Amino acid sequence: MPQTYKNILIIKPSALGDLIQVLPVLHSLREGCPHARISWFVRREFAALIEGHPDLDEVILFDRRYLGKAWWNPRAFAALVGLIDRLCRGRFDLVLDFQGLFRTSAFGWLSGCPVRIGMAGTRELSRGFYTHRIAQKPESIHLVDYYLDMLAAAGIEAAEPRFDLPCDADAEDAVRRLLAEHGVQAYRYAVLVPGSAHADKCWPVERFAELADRIAERFGLSIIATGTAGEAPTVQELAQRARGAVVNLAGRTSIRQLVALMRTAAAVVSNDTGPGHIAAALQRPLVLIFGRSNPARVLPYGRPQCAAAIDPTGRGFKADNFDPAYDIRHITVEDVFGRLRAQLGSSGRRAGATEADPAVAR
Length: 362
What we know:
- By secondary structure, the chain is α/β, with parallel strands linked by helices.
- It folds into two domains: 7-153, 3-Layer(aba) Sandwich (Rossmann fold); 169-360, Glycogen Phosphorylase B (Rossmann fold, 3-Layer(aba) Sandwich).
- The protein is built from twelve helices and twelve strands.
- A six-stranded parallel beta sheet has the order 3-2-1-4-5-6, sandwiched between helices. Strands 9-8-7-10-11-12 form a six-stranded parallel beta sheet, sandwiched between helices.
- β1, α1 and β2 form a beta-alpha-beta unit.
- α1 (16-32) runs parallel beside α10, α6 (169-181) crosses α9 and α7 (205-219) crosses α8 (232-241).
- It is globular.
């Protein structure tokens, strides 16, 4: 297999937190193929996370909902044909599919690329569209390690993992105004993320409320709770249950603004969901709370102390385990608070951090 590529396609359409796990691959590709054109095939609603990334040349938008109408809607069919044509015109000589679905592997095959690397054991009959299928090793349970193994199969050496996210001056200005509106100072607030797309991955909201009060009392931090617009009722319930003030920003930030909000947070506590993984990428003091999802696969890379979970490293390869022993309700407030306290010390600011925290100047 050649080790020099001119046009590389990353296929990882979704979701927000899953895109974070691919960032070290993007960095390694740029380091290993400095002159290559690197494109990323991503769903429209998540594209803002990676648009403008210094290691990325192009974002190819995938409008899954609209293109799903192609079988009966002529305009959607024309858009699908146009997308396939765009992939063919890319003249890709390496495709890396980190999604592993039938449709993503099919798009890679339709591009005409001669080298298409995917995951072994994938679902939905996708395996027939790959030229190389890479098995997951016991020492590569974390998805970052697994994805870098896939990269190695293309003959590209892994660089030191980095999780850079683009800065957006407009988004940062918007967040500064939003914080000022609520009397909150940068680097002096904690962000709580009590929602998730899956109800059984949500830590009880009353525990988030108790945690909010303990963080405010111990560290003197303002408390912000955020999520999607659909999660606003959960955030509102948290605010009502807490004794102290909680700023409700659910549905009030774009993806770029969410990144900016996380950049200047003193601490973040989140369910296993996209905003929490953004905070992990930004190296914020963080606790991610896990239930059925396997922490060893997606916990903040190299920071196992950030995962609050039952048996976080003993669940094997499976993405989910519905054994009641792993129910998220078994995670206590004391466990989460203790992990946060260990990172913040007694000041509410990470040891060595200043108002110009190097972790936010990435």
